[in-house]
Amino acid sequence: MPIAVIRAETFYVPPPPRRGYPAEDWSQVPGAELVYRFMEYRTGRRIVPPTDTVDQTYYARVNHNRWLADCVCGSAQIVSPDDPRYGCTECGYGWAALIFPDDVAAVEAELLAIEEPHLRNWWHPDDPANPYRIEPDPVLIPEVAA
């Protein structure tokens, strides 16, 4: 059975329970906020999610079988189509809206046809950062006779 495309919900999971303590339940935490919980555990310090939104939108992409969003600071995080927001734990960038494909299931099904998960990559066709984007031919403006 092929490995599914990784989303925030399946990547950012709670730490193993300490002996004598109940396991943490992150099932009610929205996908975009899971990275903050995960980073708090990994770094051992409090990381507060953004409270404001920014007017930017970004395109999500699949990189090596993971839904990913890139930040303006150069960092990136695993994201989820179920919670199309992105906030950066590195620079504190506020919540930005993410653009996913219209049919996420079709994109994931197409990627599952690729046997090796590390070769599963996808860019939104409208993403200006897409290295495979087909640019329209420039419109030639006729010269005006003097």
Tell me about this structure:
With 146 residues, the protein is of the alpha+beta class. The chain is 18% helix and 17% strand. The chain has helices spanning 8-11, 31-43, 104-112, and strands at 53-59, 61-63, 66-70, 76-78, 85-86, 95-99. It has a 3-stranded mixed beta sheet, with no helix packed on it. A 3-stranded antiparallel beta sheet has the order 2-3-4, with no helix packed on it. The longest helix is centred in the first third of the chain and has 13 residues, at 31-43. The model has no long low-confidence stretch (mean pLDDT 90).
Name the features.
single chain; alpha+beta; 3-stranded mixed β-sheet; 3 helices; 6 strands
Could you give a quick summary of the protein structure above?
The chain is of the alpha+beta class and 146 residues long.
Per-chain topology:
Blueprint: H1 8-11, H2 31-43, E1 53-59, E2 61-63, E3 66-70, E4 76-78, E5 85-86, E6 95-99, H3 104-112
Parallel strand pairs: 1-6
Antiparallel strand pairs: 2-3, 3-4, 5-6
Radius of gyration: 19 Å
What's the end-to-end separation, in Å? 69 Å
The largest sheet, given as strand count, sense and whether it forms a barrel, is:
3 strands, mixed
* Count of individual helical segments: 3
Residue fraction in strands? 15-25%
The parts where pLDDT drops under 50 for at least 5 residues are none
Overall mean pLDDT: 90
